Amino acid sequence: MELLNTEQRAATMEKIKDACENWGFFEVVNHGICHELLDTVEKLTKGHYKKCMEQRFKEMVASKGLEAVETEIKDLDWESTFFLKHLPISNISEVPDLEDEYRKIMKEFAEKLEKLAEQLLDLLCENLGLEQGYIKKAFYGSNGPTFGTKVSNYPPCPKPDLIKGLRAHTDAGGIILLFQDDKVSGLQLLKDDKWIDVPPMRHSIVINLGDQLEVITNGKYKSVEHRVIAQPDGNRMSLASFYNPGSDAVIYPAPELLEKENKVIYPKFVFEDYMKLYAGLKFQAKEPRFEAMKAVENTVNAAPIATV
């Protein structure tokens, strides 16, 4: 990302454009988040799992008899997770079992990621020909965007061919920033009907686009199906931070993009309504979700996006 401040800016913007249009994923380096902070986040996250979550996960596996399964498990993910909310209100001080140092470092980490998310959204706006800040405003609602981190560990799995680390899905929200383990792989994306590894790269942040950006761009950018493959050894750490619309934000294709295309493909809806639908259909195709939202879009009040 440092190339954005050099004569290579245009070429770098072109790379981002290609990634958004053809992949739905890209990996950023030199993103301005210091390596020391990332190393501390990784160390404390792995330490917290070992101390507070590993035993619980083993007990869950034993209680369900998962070590001895003989057929594919289709309704369970081989992961140990907890959630941190950052915006509009943080819950970091209330999450149990976190040491003070970990709370403090995760708060700092979230602040850096929030800035990076907003910087990236403006780069997307620039590539799309939208005014700076358009997507952030579209996400705003009455209380600003929602932003939170899913902290996951994917322990070694005795039957990786029968249990997925995380089943295939697209992300419901806006832009997702993932800090993943650089030693244990597992993340894959679907491209041209083939599963492709997203390689772990030290100190990088993996970016992927959620369903809301597909709607706002009227399909110019697409959310992409991805999954996590469980591994027979090694414990994979994954911190996925979701920069999403506010719950009452009304999401719809950007009028400027429609003027160029003259064809509305995507519905207009309140983000919270989409999330309620997504909760039950996460591991299914996204297209029926968009169709279901079309059926109720006439009830949505389409006020113009307020300037923040």
In spatial order, strands of the major sheet run 1-8-5-10-3-2
CATH topology: Jelly Rolls
**Strand percentage, roughly?**
15-25%
Molecular shape: globular
The count of domains is 1
Category by helix and strand content: alpha+beta
CATH superfamily label: B-lactam Antibiotic, Isopenicillin N Synthase, Chain
Query: What is the CATH class designation?
Result: Mainly Beta
Radius of gyration: 20 Å
Number of contiguous helices: 8
The CATH architecture can be named as Sandwich
N-to-C CA distance = 27 Å
Specify the helix fraction band: 25-40%
Structure characterization notes:
The protein is α+β, with helices and mostly antiparallel strands and 308 residues long. The chain has 8 helices and 12 strands. It has one domain (2-302): B-lactam Antibiotic, Isopenicillin N Synthase, Chain (Jelly Rolls). Strand 6 (187-191) and strand 7 form a beta hairpin. Helix 1 crosses helix 3 (100-128) and helix 2 (35-64) packs across helix 3 (100-128). The chain has a 6-stranded antiparallel beta sheet.
Give short descriptive properties of this protein.
six-stranded antiparallel β-sheet, 308 residues, alpha+beta, disordered C terminus, 8 helices
List the helices and strands and how they pair.
Layout: H1 9-22, E1 25-28, H2 35-64, E2 80-87, H3 100-128, H4 134-140, E3 146-154, E4 166-169, E5 175-180, E6 187-191, E7 194-197, E8 205-209, H5 211-216, E9 226-228, E10 236-244, E11 250-251, H6 255-261, E12 269-270, H7 271-281, H8 287-296
Antiparallel strand pairs: 1-8, 2-3, 3-10, 4-9, 5-8, 5-10, 6-7, 6-9, 11-12
